[in-house]
Write the structure tokens for this entry.
Amino acid sequence: VRRALAVDVGGTKTAVGVVDAAGRILGKETRPTPLGDPAEAVALIVSMATDLLRGHGPVDAAGAALPGVVDRASGILRSSPSSGWRDIPFGPMLSAALGLPFAVDNDVRACAWAESTLGGGAGLGSFFWMTVSTGVGGALFQGGRVIEGARGLAGELGHLVVEPGGAACGCGRRGCLEAEAAGPAWRRMALAELADGRAGAYLAGLADAELDARRIAAGARSGDEACLRIAERAGLMLARGLEAVYAVLDPEAVFIGGGVGGALDLLGPVIERELSTRVFLASERDILPRPSALGYDAALEGAAALALFPR
Ligand SMILES: [Zn+2]
């Protein structure tokens, strides 16, 4: 495959791109994901793809990264908490509409596959890929493939409880890694700093809609103490999750991507410090997480990798 059509169906936005065999994005369009009738989502993807193929095609194959539990063999999205979709045959629908073979997988697993084929994982025998954005997800690459598990749930680190009795999670439980360290958790911690009167001028000067992980990380970089406390706590929670990863999987490396992963300059040292005391034989292991080489378009690169490097 020399050129692939890549589709990233996210919980909020859908991106379609044409990507070459080296992972270069030749063209890309992004629109809000029409949640609701999946036929609408497919129609939107087909119209974006038709535009892109006119300018950057033709392509040899196509891949789609989907949010949720995916049955790779049948191309069916089994369930997706972010969209409410259940048992949607996205693979066959897209394939029929565009006349292309479509390889589909869960978005995080697609990212791990792209990291191994196009990113920083080349040459590694095993690594754990973690995305930290509006949620937390993970996937293990080992022995030349991304491990799926019995029910396609391997690597789902987001719902590991790292703070018993902690913040309420969308899964109905409390203290999950996702609820304690993803983007919404940074915002919640900032609101708590403001409510307690501990926040400094930086957080107090932000409008409500601006209280997000990216701006909190910027505040931490400028030395704001409340923002530093938030980043420190998020790093501690991520370390608690990764402690389990090292104990069970013994990966050669950990890659972190996603929007909050962009704060790895702040989180990395906290995670390394915590893991150095929590992980067995830590001094002999690579416990400083690495930034994903896939960048902002990780899931689009993931979708492309599904098509470019068939398993
Ligand atoms: Zn949960």
Summary: Residues 76 and 89 are 4 Å apart (CA to CA). The chain has ten helices and 13 strands. The two ends are 13 Å apart (CA to CA). The longest helix spans residues 225-249.
